[in-house]
Amino acid sequence: MLTTQQIQQILDAQNSANYTLLLQLCDKFLSQQNDNNNNNNNNNNNNKAKAFLFHAKGIALYFLNFGEDAICALQQAANLSPDDEQILSNFAMILTRGSNKTADWLKAKQILENLYAQNHNQNNAVIICRLAVVFWRFGLWQQAKNFSQIVVENHQNLKNINQNDYAEMLSCLSQSYIKLKDFENAKIIIQQLLQQFPNADGHLRYGELLSQTNQKIAALAEFEKSCNLQPQNLQAWDALISLLHDIGETETAYKILENFLPQVPKNQYLYHFAKHLLIDHYCDFMTTEMVHKNATALAKMISEQYPPMFSAEQFRKRKKNKNTLKIGLVSGDLRDHAVAKFLLNLFKALRQRQKDNKALINIEFFAYPTNKIYDEISQEIRSFCKAWSPICDLNDEQAAKKIFADKVDILFDLSGHT
């Protein structure tokens, strides 16, 4: 067990935001708890003490910018004390703030939904705010709007609300309105955000609204304001670079991206470097060799960050029909979209070749939509496919296992680098 003095030391370090000291204390006391385990049979009390320490350690690691280590520590705390709502709430919060992995966000979504389902949490601002952000991440715009609206309209009556949460929900609500094409309400919320919190985020959201309503030059000015106010705001730089590329100022976008990349954290570098490769193709000064060098670097980063789940031997052992070629298509655009329309022409041509007995091999298509939108175009594409298996609600591991089980021979990612 922890002594009263030890608990107070932890709380004092946490309340004073001395996270280096907090981490040192947690490691010291955890080592003592492990020694106690060997000499004490009171496992229940030891587990509570260790859960308290791992919880505090996770918070310290998060604020010291060790996101993955923070998640590991909080996972241990949650395992030791699975009914502790404060631990679970902070675990979900750090999963959404310290990780970009889909699996971590899905875990956070499950924790938060379970917590919110309990009546006494219906007005807990921390849980509501995190749920709004999670729904936003998964493209559930209506749910994101509903939950952020709860905070914006009732923030004075909610528990645990603070100014940062309130500002974040104004931002989330404005983004949701933009995605739902409700530009009038989006403008009202953004004006409220800029009046109460005249910061980089407000200018970023206003830029997004202007961009969506084809006011590109005005949007550019807002993105630049956001970058100047908060140079470390990756979202603002990303928006500025993307808009410059869209309006044909590709070389300017390239130069900004070159200066921007060194400050990108490791866990987000891959995404931004992929954008670099997209812009490379539009710069006249980029030679084939330069583009190839960047493409090779990107491939290396992907293979290091996402090692193969299945070995070459496992692929060889799969039984397959030698007369059939199975092709998998991963895309969020198997709907009323240019990608889908190009695909339909291909499907129709291949079907005609089979009817004319000109096909050299039987081809089967397996569709793996990463978007929940399903329209008439989706239905037509589906008619050409052997299987239609949405993977938008699966994490990376689950999606990979599904595709492997289908014995796909060639897998195409139709999303490109955009």
Q: Structural class, judged by helices and strands?
A: mainly alpha
Please write the string of helix (H) and strand (E) elements: HHHHHHHHHHHHHHHHHEHEHEHE
Low-confidence stretches: none
Q: Strand order across the biggest sheet? A: 3-2-1-4
Count of alpha/pi helices: 20
What features would you describe in this structure?
- The chain is mostly helical and 418 residues long.
- The termini are far apart.
- 30% of the residues are buried.
- It has a four-stranded parallel beta sheet, with no helix packed on it.
- The model has no long low-confidence stretch (mean pLDDT 89).
In brief:
It contains 20 helices and four strands. With 418 residues, it is mainly alpha-helical.
Helices and strands, with pairings:
Elements: H1 4-15, H2 19-39, H3 43-63, H4 67-80, H5 85-98, H6 102-116, H7 125-137, H8 141-154, H9 163-179, H10 183-196, H11 200-212, H12 216-229, H13 234-246, H14 250-260, H15 266-280, H16 288-305, H17 312-317, E1 324-331, H18 338-355, E2 362-369, H19 376-382, E3 387-388, H20 396-405, E4 410-413
Parallel strand pairs: 1-2, 1-4, 2-3
Helix pairs in contact: 1-2, 2-3, 3-4, 3-5, 4-5, 5-6, 5-7, 6-7, 7-8, 7-9, 8-9, 9-10, 9-11, 10-11, 11-12, 11-13, 12-13, 13-14, 14-15, 15-16, 18-19
Short key terms for the protein model shown above:
418 residues; mainly alpha; globular; four-stranded parallel beta sheet
